[in-house]
Amino acid sequence: MLTDAERTSLLSSAAGNLSGPRTDPLPRQDLDDTDRDRSIGSVGRWVAVVAVLAVLTVVVTIAINTFGGITRDVQVPDVRGQSSADAIATLQNRGFKIRTLQKPDSTIPPDHVIGTDPAANTSVSAGDEITVNVSTGPEQREIPDVSTLTYAEAVKKLTAAGFGRFKQANSPSTPELVGKVIGTNPPANQTSAITNVVIIIVGSGPATKDIPDVAGQTVDVAQKNLNVYGFTKFSQASVDSPRPAGEVTGTNPPAGTTVPVDSVIELQVSKGNQFVMPDLSGMFWVDAEPRLRALGWTGMLDKGADVDAGGSQHNRVVYQNPPAGTGVNRDGIITLRFGQ
User: Fold this and answer.
1) How far is the C-alpha of 127 from the C-alpha of 303, rounded, in Å?
2) Which neighbouring-strand residues pair with 131?
3) What's the CA angle centered on 300, arms 299 and 301, to 5 degrees?
4) What is its EC number (predicted)?
5) How far apart are CA 335 and CA 54, in angstroms?
6) In this predicted model, which residue has the larger pLDDT, 25 or 89?
7) Rounded to an integer, what distance in angstroms lies between the CA atom of residue 56 and that of residue 50?
8) Long-range CB contact pairs, 206-209, < 8 A, 24+
9) What is the share, in percent, of the chain residues with pLDDT greater than 70?
10) Which terminal Cβ of the chain has fewer Cβ within 10 Å, N or C?
11) Do the Cβ atoms of 138 and 105 come closer than 8 Å?
12) How far is the C-alpha of 76 from the C-alpha of 126, rounded, in Å?
């Protein structure tokens, strides 16, 4: 602990030091223009160096990416069966360039993808070009003409033309074309997909139809009605009949018979020379003859031998020929027998 005397001595000593000799500061030196230019030039050089380095960095980066630097591999996605628009969008989203190629295909629908080149799941460089093979549908070819060939010969010719699916169908034909090809569906010289079924139509001979009943019609009307059924060949035969002259009484073959449509149908045409025989049973001759004459009969009576028919039938008609209801020529002979 300092005494009062010691404390006073120290303070005096410090005051003496403060009042001692003083050192002056160094005078300030101003830079001249030469020194200032040198400083600015040094900074500019550094800025230029930095700029050059930046440009070199960009150039080197581009060169590496362009000339054999490390590239990123991308797997080609599987777009088979997709529509061409969807497939192209998928591939473009992966960064690929696209080229499309149209090809026929029997299994892939038109405008859908058959496949790609390079193939699906192949690893390629990003940005590579991918060829997308797009289906145009089955290949189209022309149907050859196989008319007059047998079915087997037709199949062979169609197979050689590229077709592979066939079906036989029979159709009426002329007799000469029985067992021969009379056409195809699609028809000859028409273009069709090779996957389509070609129907080979083979002749089965003339079609058969039932002869319709044309009795009571005129010849013209009867022929037109027969035409509707497919019959086109006719002949005529005049027949004894109580029907009006020129009217068809029937056909040969008869109505309802099944015959080929190329058959000749004979039209039996009434001469109009008959009347329908009435029933003369029980009549006396004096009553029977006027009735026959009234029907137009101009012929002669053939009186047969009398028949023992009992007293009630004496001199009455007990037998007649032709029978009642049949046609009788107006100038024909009628046979009657009377009871005795």
Assistant:
1) 123
2) 99, 117
3) 130
4) 2.7.1.-, 2.7.11.1
5) 144
6) 89
7) 10
8) 206/172, 206/173, 206/174, 206/175, 206/260, 206/261, 206/262, 206/263, 207/172, 207/260, 207/261, 208/258, 208/259, 208/260, 208/261, 209/258, 209/259, 209/261
9) 79
10) N
11) yes
12) 10
Task: Count other Cβ atoms within 10 Å, centred on residue 340.
Answer: 14
Q: How many CB atoms lie within 10 A of CB 87?
A: 23
Name the band, by pLDDT with cuts 50, 70 and 90, for residue 205: very high
In whole angstroms, what is the distance from residue 59 CA to residue 65 CA? 10
Which residue in this structure is represented by tokens 């035969």? 237
| Backbone angles phi and psi of 134, in degrees to 5 | -105, 130
Q: What is the mean pLDDT of the chain?
A: 86
User: In this structure, which long-range contacts are made by residues 309-317, counting pairs with CB atoms below 8 Å and at least 24 apart in sequence?
Assistant: 309/339, 309/340, 310/339, 313/282, 313/339, 314/339, 314/340, 315/284, 315/285, 315/339, 315/340, 316/281, 316/282, 316/283, 316/284, 317/280, 317/281, 317/282, 317/283, 317/284, 317/285, 317/288
pLDDT score, position 272: 96
Cβ neighbours of residue 196 under 8 Å, at least 6 residues apart?
Answer: 138, 163, 165, 186
What separation in angstroms does the CA of 221 have from each of 63, 230, 246? 99, 15, 12
Burial (CB < 10 A; 0-12, 13-18, 19+), residue 137, is: middle
Taking only the tens place, the pLDDT of each residue in 115-137 is: 999 999 999 998 999 999 999 99
Complete domains list, the chain, with CATH: 74-135 (3.30.10.20), 140-203 (3.30.10.20), 208-270 (3.30.10.20), 275-339 (3.30.10.20)
Per the structure block, which two tokens stand in for 7? Answer: 């404390």
